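Readers of this paper often ask what the protein records in our data store actually look like. This encoding replaces a full spatial description with a residue-level series of whole-number codes. For reference, a complete record is included directly beneath this paragraph.
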Amino acid sequence: MSSRKLKKLLKCSGQCGNKSTFTIPLTNPVEKMTSLDFPKDGRAHIEMVAQSLKDKVRIVSFKSAILHNKHLFRGRVVLNLNCGVGLFALFAAKAGAARVFAVDNSNVVYYTKLIVQNNGYNDIIQVMKGEITQIELPVDEIDIIVCDWMGQALLHQSTCVDVLYARDKWLKKSGGLIFPDKARLFVAAIEDERYKNRNIEWWNQVYGFNMNCLREVAIREPRYHSVKVEQLLSKQYPIQMLNLNKATCEDLYIRSKYKLHMQRCGRMDGIVLFFHVYFSKSHTRLAFSTDPWSPLTNSLQTVFFLDQSLSVNVNSVYYGGIELYSPESSHNLENIIINFEMLKGEPSHAEFETAMNWHMISSRIPPCVVFKTIDRSNNEADGSQDVNPFQKHKGNVLK
């Protein structure tokens, strides 16, 4: 709007009485959203968009996977699932894709359409709003699915169910590709007394009153924060490899044995889950990680505190079982239960140590925490540099 038109509107509003207000017309649904709407569609909030784009580890990994594999994208039909503002769709178009369908159920797509138009890709990228299970693509087959499908602890709030649906309905049976297509979930023991005291034990005595009933609630909720390498007590242990090329919804029920080899003495306050992500179809090895040795991502690490902390000795071994699953038949990954059981000693004379269950029902990541960690861990804002494959900590993956 020109300054002349703005002055005219202001003058007009001032002559219409004290009850009138000056407003700029809203042009699309995302601009009409209010504070009541954003809790239901947080991904349309500009701060959430910025938070996602500032995760350089993840963004540059996708950029490298697409632009370093132009021979795979050139002339192909691509589905960018849960596209957000369409950055990965833009990468695909830049890599030479013939057609790109950018699909998202969020009102963020109204920004996506403007971004696509402003960058001159209207003839290649078609932005579509809706659930993937309810829309129809104007093609019978697609060549590639690009989706940032990973959630907290890999599964929580993941969109891998959408990827499996799109794969079965549209992806070419022979030669179809998923970017990324594999991920491995790990568990390790940690010492985190300070955080536990500040967020769990604190409820035992609040301004002179016993609020232990709220401690019982707090201990059942996972925490998302940055775990330092020196807090790890054990080697990391792989508990699940998820391959979206052939996985089914039943594979999203994770039930695994584990073995934790303690590397030092300390006090085990809980366990931590993190994951590695692989673009296995890339012509060069490409992956990134959310482990404590790697640069921070929006996923941080997911920490589950034990009710009673345990003293552990170096070279001691703890083992048991862990499972992650949705209690709903619809595989609702917004709602995940984690069951955990731990034993100690020789299998013939095993001693029961502890059992816990936690409930992942919503994200608890304060945006300010994520912004702080991401800004600290990344360098330039334009994401122009390439990302190296994640740095594997030698001797910490049990093969």
User: Anything to note?
Assistant: Residues 30-148 form a domain with the Rossmann fold fold (CATH 3.40.50.150). The two ends are 63 Å apart (CA to CA).
